[in-house]
Write a structure and sequence with these properties.
The protein is mostly beta strands and 401 residues long. The protein has one domain. The longest helix is centred in the C-terminal third of the chain and has 18 residues. It is 15% helix and 40% strand.
């Protein structure tokens, strides 16, 4: 459905109008019902099907859209972006044309930013994981520049394969992209997206995953760098027995905007999902946004789902928006729930550490380190985990200067 189709209206039948309901002078609002849930959002790969962003839309209202004009309304360079993928057995890397049948299987944009990137790209970068022996593939994007770019990436795990794919983003960039993930039946795939951009970088990224029968998919986001980072994963558990897990860790400094909108779609019986995002904020104007949407469809009986977001505020002048949403269309489920909390240090934790001879400054570092490393340690690649731990140490060192 396109946006244009979504706004079509029909006149009410005679005698069914609500008493006292009259059209206002600002438009025919009486016959237009706003989108209330994630599952009702219009979708399209054509940017022309979406109106220009004002910042008042539900999907954009927490984002500094005034700084995104080049990516939302400008002309994007859709040529190949520079990527480096070290050769490894069991993983292949290639470029495919935009009309290739392997594109468009995992999801479709729900907003203008993603549609603009989809409309502009000329070729997609395809990474394929195959074979039952576990394989790790690292995709490095570190040679972009400040020119507005569009990109499209497809990651596929063939049936019964096992793998880890790490997307490493560093340097300067003004990038809008779509990432599709296709997890075959019985496959086990972990995809990690690491944002360690320079302070001037702007990155809009929409991830779409479809998970096969009895397959398992783990999606991990680590956002530590970039002026504006907006990464929105949508995981669709489309086949019976599918398992989806989404983890996120983020550390926002002064003036930095880090946003993650997570969608977990249960669209088959006996599916399971877990969502855990944890963030820390320090410095004037540091802003994080987490929105978690879970949909349990009518046919998803036996679903087991839980989502949570935790934010640790280290200094005054920060803002953390945290919004969990749960939509359930069937009563035949194993369980579903959500939780959200934002606060300062736990005084009991600090007291416990200080009572054992640890200074208050070091105690605070230990608390933050343990808070975020719960997510970092899910990655499963020692070198990447060590590098990110060092990055977090550097962030904490800045906070004590």
């Amino acid at each position: 459905m396109t946006t244009a189709e979504a706004t079509k209206t029909t006149a009410p039948e005679a005698g069914t109008e609500q008493h006292g309901l009259k059209a206002h002078s600002d438009g025919d609002w009486a016959n237009r019902v706003p989108v209330q849930t994630r599952s009702e959002r219009p979708t399209s790969t054509d940017v022309a099907d979406f109106a220009e962003v004002t910042g008042r839309e539900a999907v954009w209202k927490y984002t500094p859209v005034a700084k995104l004009g080049a990516l939302l309304n400008g002309e994007l360079d859709g040529s190949r972006i520079p990527v480096t993928v070290p050769a490894v057995a069991g993983a292949t890397s290639e470029w495919i044309a935009r009309d290739d049948a392997r594109i468009g299987r995992a999801g479709v944009p729900e907003e203008r930013g993603a549609a603009a990137a989809w409309s502009a790209f000329s070729e997609a970068h395809l990474v394929t994981i195959s074979g039952e022996e576990h394989v790790t593939a690292i995709v490095r994007r570190d040679a972009l520049d400040a020119a507005p770019r569009a990109a499209h990436t497809v990651v596929e795990a063939t049936p019964h394969s096992r793998g880890l794919v790490i997307l490493e983003n560093t340097g300067s960039a003004q990038l809008s992209e779509n990432v599709e993930i296709v997890v075959g039946d019985g496959a086990q795939l972990t995809l990690v997206s690491v944002q360690q951009w320079n302070d001037d970088a702007i990155h809009l990224s929409s991830h779409y995953a479809t998970v096969g029968r009895d397959a398992s998919f783990v999606h991990i986001v680590v956002s530590l760098g970039g002026g504006i980072v907006r990464l929105n994963p949508s995981i669709h558990l489309d086949h019976e027995g599918a398992n989806g897990e989404a983890f996120g860790a983020y550390f926002a400094d002064a003036g930095q905007h880090l946003e993650h909108q997570v969608y977990m779609d249960h669209n088959a019986p006996h599916t399971r999902s877990r969502v855990t995002y944890k963030g820390a904020l320090q410095g004037e104007g540091a802003h994080t946004v987490w929105i978690g949407d879970v949909l349990i469809r009518q046919n998803a009986n036996g679903t087991d789902s839980y989502e949570q977001n935790r934010n640790l505020v280290l200094t005054p002048g920060t803002r953390a928006d945290s919004i969990p949403n749960l939509e359930i269309e069937t009563g035949d489920i194993e369980g579903a729930g959500h939780a959200s909390a934002t606060g300062r240090f736990d005084d009991e934790h600090l007291f416990y550490l200080q009572s054992r001879g640890i200074s208050e400054e070091e105690a605070r570092k230990l608390v933050v380190r343990g808070f975020l490393l719960e997510v970092i340690n899910q990655i499963g690649d020692d070198a990447t985990e060590e590098r990110l731990q060092a990055a977090i140490e550097a962030e904490l060192a800045e906070s004590t200067k």
